[in-house]
Amino acid sequence: MTGIRQEGPQDTAAREALLDRAFGKFRRRKTAERLREGRRPAEGLSFTASDTAGHLIGTIRLWHVIAGSAGPALLLGPVAVNSALRSKGLGSALVRHALAEARKRGHRAVILVGDEPYYRRFGFSRRAVSDLHLPGPVERERFLGLELVPGALDGAEGLVLGCGKLEGKSRKAA
Questions:
Q1: What is the DSSP-derived secondary structure letter of residue 72?
Q2: What is the pTM of this model?
Q3: What does DSSP say about strands 132-133 and 109-113: parallel, antiparallel, or unpaired?
Q4: pLDDT per residue over 7-58, tens digit each?
Q5: Is the peptide bond before 72 cis (omega within 30 degrees of 0)?
Q6: Dmax of the chain from CA atoms?
Q7: How many CB atoms lie within 10 A of CB 123?
């Protein structure tokens, strides 16, 4: 691996192909996709990993959301790693890198839909989002949250909504 870097426009085709392989043809039907639909990822919080030949082997993105009464937060996902390289620590490195950058940028909380045993190591828990709800069906045990700032999700309740810049809009118009 050559390292983790900011995602660029040149990564689009390879990223989409990797996500299709990782999550299948129905990946856009998931509830978390409703929060991302038609929006740009949070500025400066989309990363890729490449191998020494320059092939994209991993991706992660964070998105702006409103976490009910807690207010602004980030949605983590999707994160994907080339199947030949899974269980080698690349996914963890991507998550750690993205969370560290989110902290540096002053974000307070991150939510996601994913496997609790995997994400628990980064501090995610069901408790943090127990009174929040997503705009569609989700297995409650897979809905997790992480406070980047202690207390950021204390007492949070209500519906999680997508927000942030719209795709295709100029920076001034979004």
A1: E
A2: 0.91
A3: unpaired
A4: 999 999 999 999 888 887 776 678 888 899 999 999 999 999 999 888 999 9
A5: no
A6: 47
A7: 14
Helix (H, G, I), strand (E, B), or coil: what is residue 20?
Answer: helix
Q: Which residue matches tokens 């870097």? A: 5
Whether 114 and 144 have beta carbons less than 8 Å apart is answered as: yes
Tokens for 83, please give them.
């199947």
**Alpha carbon distance 54, 146 (integer Å):** 32
CB atoms under 10 Å from CB of 171, counted, come to 8
Q: What domains lie within the chain, and their CATH numbers?
A: 3-162 (3.40.630.30)
- The alpha carbon dihedral of 142, 71, 168, 11 has a sign of negative
Give me the pLDDT at residue 1, please.
56
